[in-house]
């Protein structure tokens, strides 16, 4: 069974939502798959077990470059999915979500680039938090202690969190 996820976006709270696109989600062979922008990702793998790893990008060439700000970036470099928290708890905007599952999608950094991505899912709700740091720089020694949001020259930092699950 395929579930369709209609996505809408807005720049600021209070603005009207604008339809953006439709994603798909389905289960196949113990894999929870979500198709985002025509790329199929293995988001969760069953059975869920702390420390279990898998290739979340197995259905496409991970060297596939994405265009961000008019430039192509090696977005999925060094991505490897792993359950890092199983059965934990997370609080977002004064709401506590018990029985969460945290998936680390990427955890790679050197002086030129960072690829860190995490998704957190709550039982009976779904995705409640996502952070993605995909940033490149050419600033080396003089920027060694500078945060990525300042020294980054290409890419993006993306934080998404649930605001209301009713």
What's the topology here?
Blueprint lengths: L2 E7 L8 E11 L2 E6 L2 E7 L7 E2 L11 E3 L2 E3 L5 E14 L2 E15 L3 E10 L3 E11 L11 H4 L2 E8 L5
Antiparallel strand pairs: 1-2, 2-3, 3-4, 5-8, 6-7, 8-9, 9-10, 10-11, 11-12
Mind explaining what this structure looks like?
With 166 residues, the protein is an all-beta fold. 2% of the residues lie in helices and 58% in strands. It is built from 1 helix and 12 strands, in the order E-E-E-E-E-E-E-E-E-E-E-H-E. The chain has one helix at 148-151; strands at 3-9, 18-28, 31-36, 39-45, 53-54, 66-68, 71-73, 79-92, 95-109, 113-122, 126-136, 154-161. The strands form 3 sheets. It has a 6-stranded antiparallel sheet with strand order 5-8-9-10-11-12, with no helix packed on it. The two termini are 24 Å apart. The model has no long low-confidence stretch (mean pLDDT 93).
Output the number of helix runs: 1
Uncertain residue segments = none
Shape: globular
What does the average pLDDT come to? 93
Main beta sheet: 6 strands, antiparallel
Number of strands: 12
Radius of gyration equals 17 Å
**Helix/strand order:** EEEEEEEEEEEHE
Q: What's the end-to-end separation, in Å?
A: 24 Å
Helix residue percentage: under 10%
Task: Report the portion of residues in β strands.
Answer: over 45%
Features:
166 residues, mainly beta, four-stranded antiparallel beta sheet, 1 helix
